[in-house]
Amino acid sequence: MSQFSKEKLKGKDLITIGIFSAIYFVTNFIFMLMGGLHPMMWILMPGFIALFTGLPFMLMCSKVQKMGAVLLMGAIIGLIYFVTGMFTAVILATFAISCILSELVRMISGYNNFKGNMLAFICFSLGMTGSPLPVWIMHDKFMTQISGQGMPADYIMELGNLSSPTMLLVLFLAPVIGAIIGSWISKKMFQKHFEKAGIV
Question: How many domains does the chain have?
Fold first, then answer.
């Protein structure tokens, strides 16, 4: 375990976590908006988010090798979404579980381990599956709800056609694949930075 992991989060760490949380949120928000263009885009959204947020997450892990960093990052993002009213009970639950698992993985792997941080990012990325997940776990109620909120009929019809067991598997596989690719892209882009942090 890294010697830094035993230290408490300091002011500099909080600023670093806040900056990368903001970058993650902006990227996350863009793809959530794009999910309204087509149901397939919404189902693949967690995967796209993972692919394009690997950089801020992995850099945050390299700069803050301490317990609680991922939990705080998740709390900041969750709070922003909660305030804007865009989080449902389902996504709050999946996001909370994913953050806890991610934090545990980092703790077990020692914080300065690339594969450990990549696995932590996979866990973290799975939290966003809670956004489309209601389509499967509360199908009729959810479809009625979004219809009442003014969602176009053709969008709802296509979403209904896509709500199959196969697409549910795709929903969970997409962020796993996206997180792996995103992590490796980050490693290649910042090889020297990760080496200096002792992660590579």
Answer: 1
The parent domain of residue 159 ranges over 3-197
Q: Which long-range contacts (CB under 8 A, 24 or more apart) does 18-21 make?
A: 18/76, 20/56, 20/57, 20/59, 20/60, 20/73, 21/60, 21/72, 21/73, 21/76, 21/77
Q: Are 65 and 112 in contact (CB under 8 A)?
A: yes
Report the predicted TM-score, pTM, of the whole model to 2 decimal places: 0.88
* 11: amino acid identity, one letter: G
Reported residue count of the chain is: 200
Which DSSP symbol is given to 9?
P
Is residue 125 within 8 Å of residue 44, measured between CB atoms?
A: no
End-to-end alpha-carbon separation of the chain, Å?
Answer: 15
The model's pLDDT over 1-48, given as tens digits with 9 standing for 90+, comes to 555 556 788 889 999 999 999 999 999 889 988 988 899 999 999 999
Which residue's entry shows tokens 């922003």? 80
Determine what percent of the chain falls in helix, strand and coil, rounding each to the nearest 5. Answer: 80, 0, 20
State the burial class of residue 98 (Cβ atoms within 10 Å of its Cβ: 0-12, 13-18, 19+): buried
**CB-facing half-sphere around the CA of 62: CA atoms within 13 A:** 23
